[in-house]
Specification:
globular; Arc Repressor Mutant, subunit A; two-stranded antiparallel ribbon; 2 domains; mainly alpha; homodimer; DNA-binding
Chain lengths: 130, 130
DNA sequence: TATTTGTATTATAATAAATAATACAAAAAG
DNA sequence: CTTTTTGTATTATTTATTATAATACAAATA
C-alpha cells in the first residue's frame, strides 16, 4: 500500500500516517504480518522528519495495531484480538457522530444503510486475512 | 436539560458544551424550539468566560442546530432539514471509527448491533418532535 | 566491524487553541 | 429616554500542539 500525505491539510502529518495505516489494517489493504517501511525510510519518502513518523508508529504500537521488532521491522499485527464488543470510547464517539448526522437531517434508514455499506466493505474478507 | 461540564477533562469547555447540545437536540432531550440559557447566564452557571460559551453557540449556529434571535434568545431549531443522505465528512469519520473498532477485534455483528442500539435510542421518537 | 534499526533526549521554532478582558451596537425593559 | 441585557467583535494572553532538528545509544544486521 502506498502511503501518501497531504501537506496542505490541517490534519497533523503524524495523524494522517496513523489514520491511513489504521484504515489499511482494518480493510485488509495492509495484510496481517505485512512489513511497513522503516521509520527513516518512510520519513525520507514523505520528506518529513523521522521523529514525525516515529510518533505515528509509536501510536499504532500502543494501540496494538502494529508490532515493532528490531529484526523484522515494523509490521501489521498478525491477527486482531477477538475482543468482541465495542468499548466506551467507541460508544461515545459513535453516538456523537450519529447525533450530528441526525441534526443534519439524515434519516434513520439512510444512516443504517450507509453504516452497513461501510461495515460490509471493511469486513468483506474473512477475519482480517489477505 | 441540565448542562454540565467537566473542568478536569482534556476536552475543551466550548466543545463539551457544543457536544452536549448536539446530543440533546438529536435525542430529543432538547426539544425543537426549546430555549437555551443566554451566553452570559450559562457562562455564569458554569463559572467560565462568556466568550467560551459564545464559541460553542456560534458553532451550533453555523451548524444549523440552534438559531439566535436577540428577542427570543437562543433556541433549538424547530425542525431538522430532511436532507437525507450522510455527507462526505460523515463517511470519513465513520469509516475511520469503524476501522479502529475492527482493529480492536470488534466483530461485524457486534459492531452492527451496537450501532443499531445507538441509532434506535436516537430516533425513538418521531422525526425530531418532543 | 560498519551499518541500520528503533528510540530516547533535548531543543527550538511555528502554529493553533483556549480562555479572558473589554467594548459596543441592537434590542428590551423600566 | 434611560437603563439593562443581549450577542458579538476585537484584542490579548496563556497554554498546548506540532514539526523539526541534532545527537546519542543499544540492539541487531550484514
Amino acid at each position: 500500500m502506498r502511503l501518501e500525505i497531504d501537506l496542505t491539510s490541517d490534519v497533523p502529518i503524524y495523524r494522517q500516517i496513523r489514520d491511513r495505516i489504521v484504515r489499511g489494517a482494518a480493510s485488509g489493504a495492509l495484510a496481517p504480518g505485512e512489513r511497513l517501511p522503516t521509520v527513516r525510510q518512510l520519513a525520507a519518502d514523505l520528506g518529513v522528519n523521522p521523529m514525525t513518523v516515529n510518533k505515528a508508529y509509536a501510536l499504532l504500537k500502543a494501540e496494538g495495531i502494529i508490532v515493532m521488532d528490531r529484526r523484522r521491522g515494523a509490521q501489521i499485527c498478525e491477527s486482531f484480538a477477538q475482543s468482541g464488543t465495542p468499548d466506551d470510547d467507541f460508544d461515545g464517539k459513535a453516538s456523537l457522530l450519529l447525533s450530528e448526522a441526525r441534526t443534519k437531517g439524515v434519516s434513520k434508514q439512510a444512516l443504517l444503510a450507509r453504516i452497513s455499506e461501510i461495515v460490509n466493505t471493511l469486513y468483506q474478507d474473512g477475519e482480517g486475512s489477505k
